[in-house]
Each structure stands twice: as C-alpha cells, then as structure tokens.
Amino acid sequence: MEKISLxxxxxxxxxxxxxxxxxxxxxxxxxxxxxxxxxxxxCPEVECGFGTPREAMRLTGDPEHPRLVTTRTGVDHTExxxxxxxxxxxxLENDDLCGFIFKSNSPSSGMERVKVYDDxxxxxxxxxxxxxxxxxxxxxxxPVEEDGRLHDPTLRENFIDRIFTYKxxxxxxxxxxxxxxxxxxxxxxxxxxxxxxxxxxxxIGPLVAHAKELSTQELVGRYEQLLLEAMALxxxxxxxxxxxxxxxxxxxxxxxxxxxxxxxxxxxxxxSELIPLIVPVTLINHYVRxxxxxxxxxxxxxxxxxxxxxxxxxx
Length: 315
Ligand code: SF4
Prior knowledge:
By secondary structure, the chain is α/β, with parallel strands linked by helices. The protein is built from eleven helices and eight strands. It has helices spanning 27-32, 44-47, 78-92, 130-138, 153-173, 178-196, 198-209, 216-232, 237-248, 257-271, 278-291; strands spanning 4-9, 37-42, 57-60, 67-70, 100-102, 114-117, 123-127, 144-146. It has a four-stranded parallel β-sheet with strand order 2-1-5-8. A four-stranded mixed β-sheet has the order 4-3-6-7, with no helix packed on it. It binds iron/sulfur cluster. Iron/sulfur cluster (SF4) binds at residues 9-11, 17-18, 43-46, 103, 106, 108-109.
C-alpha cells in the first residue's frame, strides 16, 4: 500500500507556527503514524497571512455562527478566514486525503468543544474552529479526529481503521474493473464492517448482490457512502465479540473440544476486559494459517493495520 494522504494541523508536526511562536508536537502522530502516512500540513492562521508570532484569537458571539476575533485588540478576522478556508478546502480536493487530524481547542482548527465567549466574556466549550467547520462541511464523510482524542485507545483504533480502510478502497477503485474490484473489496472487508456496524453490513449485502443491475457510477457512489458511514461508527467490545464468535463457527470441524474451549474462554476474557483484543485475534490467525481457512484468510479484520501501531494491544 502507498502511504496514506492525511491532512494535519501543522503545529502537531512540531512546526513553530502557533500564535506564541511555539509548536504542539505529537510524537505518536509525527513518528509512529507518520511512517505510514504522507501528511498534508495546514495552518489556517499562518497560511491566511497572520504571521508568527501573532495576537491570539478566540471565537465570540453566536456559537452557531461565531466570530473570529483577536483577544486583546478585538479585530474581527472572520470574513478573511472564511474566504481563505473555502479556497483552501477546494485545493485540498487534489490531495486525495483519506482523513484529517485537527489540533484541539483552536478557534481555527478545533473540531469540537472549542471555547466560544459570550458578550460578558464567559466561555462555553461548544464551538468548532472556523477552518475545521468549513473542512467538515466540504468533506462530510471524510474521517476526522483531534490530537487529544487520539490518545484514547478506542478512538485511536477506530480512526486508524477508517483511514486504512478508505485508502484500500481508493486503491481498489483505481483498478480498471471497478465493479469486480468493489465486490472483491467488500468480500475482504465483511468482518471489519461487522465490527463497526452490523446494520450497514446488512444494507450493503443486497447492494453488492445486485451490483449488475446498477451502473458502475451508481454502485460505487452508494457503496462508498455506506462504507464511510459504517466505518464512522465505533467498534466496541460487544461488536468484536460478535465477530470473534462468528469466526469461531468456521472451525467447527477442525478444532478439538479443548481448542474450542480455549478460544471461547479467551473471547470471554476479552469481553470481561481481562485481556486485549490482540490475544483472541492472534489465536484465530494461528488457526486460519494452520487450517488454511479460505474465507477467513482473506479477511482484513484479522490484519487491518500494521502490528507496529499496537492498536489492538490496548483495545
Ligand atoms: S492550531 Fe491550527 S491555526 Fe493554530 S498553530 Fe496549529 S495549525 Fe496553526
């Protein structure tokens, strides 16, 4: 797989672009995840021409339509930032982004819970940064996250699942036979989809089964929408347990009673949060190789992202 193209707030890469001349380096993003992605850095305040260092800004007024105002001198930069942001997101169309990681709490880049100050100067954490809002309006289904939220193991695994899946999907759609590639992609991703949204998996099944009745454009458009909606829903221990039991069913004839008991016990221990997901998944991977199970060996669920990211060691 080629590197994944991912937008990111520039300061998270350690660039000194913050209002005070500092940065907000996140080592996991820059070094660990950075080995698999091609970052497209965006600093709205610097690219909009405010320079570094600069006067700090904040959101004020109506939380639905906040103004971007400098904190000391009260200069209103809303129109300038909005015009720049619209032009920038249009340009980002050319970067094949599979997602974006925003810097939290920023009046320009924050994705949620950004402080909005009322007339009396009282803040409420209910805003969205100006650039982040315009980006999410322009790319409503694209995976987005914030640096702070990515420290949560579940949110981190979900986001990385989404960007790797979207990249694989894009690569599949680059093939000449898009219809055949889509059916193959779907077959390989069934269990991963089940881990995110069994409901969407049920909806997608008939779409793929009747693929021949639709034009390629309609099929691809509807599939992509459902895929991204499904992947946006978080996987959970209960959903993973469902998938693990489903996979167990494929070994009904191969495993001895003892081996089945051991696997069921591991799944129960995972359900009780005594062991991480990687433990039952590793044992199932072992049986898939040992018995050369043809359906499961194709399933991306068993190896959705590089082991080096250690995502399932904590989930
Ligand atoms: S939070 Fe956004 S605007 Fe502020 S320095 Fe970082 S990238 Fe630039």
